Automatic annotation (TrEMBL):
Lineage, opening ranks: Bacteria, Bacillati, Actinomycetota, Actinomycetes, Kitasatosporales
Protein name: TerB family tellurite resistance protein
Alphabetized InterPro entries for the sequence: DjlA_N, TerB-like
Source organism, top-level taxon: Bacteria
UniProt domain Co-chaperone DjlA N-terminal: residue ranges: 101-225
Native source species: Streptomyces griseoincarnatus
Amino acid sequence: MLPERGPDGRTAATRRARRLVGTRTAWTAVGDGEFFCPHCGGDRNYQRLTGRRRFTVLGVPVLPRGVCAPTVECAACRGHFGTDVLDHPTTTRFSAMLRDAVHTVALAVLAAGGTCSRAALETAAAGVRAAGFEDCTEEQLAALVEALEEDTGRFTGEPCVAGLSIELHEALDPLAPHLAAPGRESILLQGARIALADGPYTPAERDALATVGAALTIRTDDVGRLLAAARTPS
């Protein structure tokens, strides 16, 4: 006759044995902060934990069984996650990264040839305000582009020089892995609309937009397709 099993699938003897002997993990907090909890779906506080496993008899730890991988524990749901969860920016941080990216792209495109056009400035300012810089004005953008030109020693309409290319990559490289393809394309298209506000793309504007596409990990063929689509009235 087979031994009777409980709801957990274990026999009574197995359950008694597990009460007698087992393994217990002792967790120690080694850090804390704020992260995006994938279980809660929002920003939460966390503790970073390290753990040591011990073999127990009658609930008493007697022998070490090694260490556990570092773990992140959510203060709200008490869920445990691998430390790679900390690579995902918090909602607050992500919003700031997106806002800065749109602002940097707008400046790069304006510096490439559109800052003298009121239409380009108005398009750029509207996009930057929508991204989170609510007080941005056309005059502020024009002043920033002028300061950028003085700092880099370049003139409006020149190709995207090394300094500006570095700024674009610094703003866009950390953001790109956390954006789906439509989000990355939207940033590029916003730059394209600024460039087209005062007429067809200039070579310098195309160069700047190509740099934006590369920093956003958009394939060269797709960059060309998107820039061509932006020229077509919707």
